[in-house]
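Subject: design request, 378 residues
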């Protein structure tokens, strides 16, 4: 009887209280694991948002910086006012209003002086859409700028990774012949027989004319989708002729965009730039330092072109650096986050937005090497 009772005691199961305690402990552990999983998953989602936001900002700065660095590349052509080998007063100096960035190509509208102004003023900036571009650059986001950049294509038509030579498109050709002073150019759709190389015999290569307009619109693909996007309109051949193309979206999440220009208004000796006079040399015997021409460095405060104070041709021909400000915004809201910060964009600020989107500001200063470089002297 003693052995039977002992075996029965050893085989007894859990009591109800023990079962309830075990279940409770398991539920606590499970709840902790679920909370940990949700926390890690939420953190991962936020990291993806932030990484995408920062990547978008960096990419937009890279694209704009690369574009501005090529501004004013016209191979062998040099504006008369920047050519230190030209004697006397330069004859061709753009003055007054800047060229119209959205003027469609035609032989009547694109006069020689207008073409020259496009080359001599490779960068323009606005705080509002120019009147001629109103039907093209639609849905511009408020408090953002418009940037126009012009240059010749850096590759030759038909070479690897470069568009083929297409009839009807606009091409640029410059002269490197020593007898053609000041330097000359051809900007047209056909011909290209007058510009020669250094030997004054071999025909110079022609390059595609590039004119890009960057701005921020308030949608990405569909009007009303609410995704601010950096867009670009490029000058090219349309069924209706040569003109700026409808803008295409480049980078989503770009919400702020501001452009400020650095002007080269003083020479090396501190004298003001003056194109209404012939070059004045600090050392007339050696012609080493011009006193009334720029030295390639920006002088004074950076300038913001606005509707109230638009930049004139007199200013734009002396742009040697461009300061870019970009504010990138996440594409999705972040629960529990409120953006109360302000963002410094040079002489302006954005925010606070007081919403649940995360943002990051980027800035860079780009030297226009094709303009500043030709102004440097020993």
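Subject: RE: design request

Done. Sequence follows.
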């Amino acid at each position: 009887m003693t052995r039977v009772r002992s075996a029965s005691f050893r085989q007894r199961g859990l009591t109800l209280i023990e079962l309830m305690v075990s279940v409770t402990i398991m539920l606590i552990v499970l709840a902790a694991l679920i909370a940990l999983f949700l926390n890690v998953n939420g953190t991962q989602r936020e990291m993806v948002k932030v990484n995408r936001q920062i990547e978008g900002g960096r990419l937009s700065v890279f694209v704009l910086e690369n574009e501005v660095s090529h501004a004013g590349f016209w191979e062998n052509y040099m504006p008369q006012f920047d050519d230190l080998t030209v004697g006397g007063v330069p004859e061709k100096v753009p003055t007054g209003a800047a060229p119209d960035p959205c003027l469609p190509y035609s032989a009547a509208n694109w006069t020689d002086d207008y073409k020259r102004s496009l080359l001599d003023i490779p960068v323009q900036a606005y705080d509002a859409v120019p009147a001629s571009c109103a039907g093209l650059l639609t849905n511009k986001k408020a408090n953002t700028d418009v940037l126009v950049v012009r240059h010749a294509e850096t590759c030759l038509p038909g070479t690897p990774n470069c568009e083929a030579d297409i009839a009807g498109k606009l091409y640029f050709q410059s002269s490197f012949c020593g007898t053609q002073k000041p330097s000359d150019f051809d900007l047209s759709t056909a011909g290209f027989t007058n510009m020669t190389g250094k030997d004054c015999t071999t025909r110079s290569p022609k390059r595609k004319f590039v004119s890009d307009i960057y701005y921020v619109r308030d949608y990405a693909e569909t009007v009303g989708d609410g995704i601010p996007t950096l867009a670009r309109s490029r000058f090219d051949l349309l069924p209706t002729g040569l003109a700026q193309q409808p803008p295409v979206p480049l980078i989503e999440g770009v919400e702020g965009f501001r452009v400020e220009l650095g002007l080269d208004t003083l020479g090396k000796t501190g004298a003001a730039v003056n194109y209404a006079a012939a070059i004045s040399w600090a050392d007339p015997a050696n012609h080493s330092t011009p006193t009334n021409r720029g030295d390639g460095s920006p002088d004074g405060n950076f300038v913001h072109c606005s509707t109230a104070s638009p930049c004139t041709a007199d200013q734009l021909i002396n742009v040697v650096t461009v300061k870019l400000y970009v504010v990138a915004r996440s594409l999705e809201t972040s629960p529990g986050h409120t953006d109360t910060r302000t963002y410094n964009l040079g002489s302006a600020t954005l925010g606070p937005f007081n919403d649940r989107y995360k943002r990051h500001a980027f800035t860079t200063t780009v030297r226009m090497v094709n303009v500043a470089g030709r102004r440097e002297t020993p």
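The longest strand covers residues 206-217.
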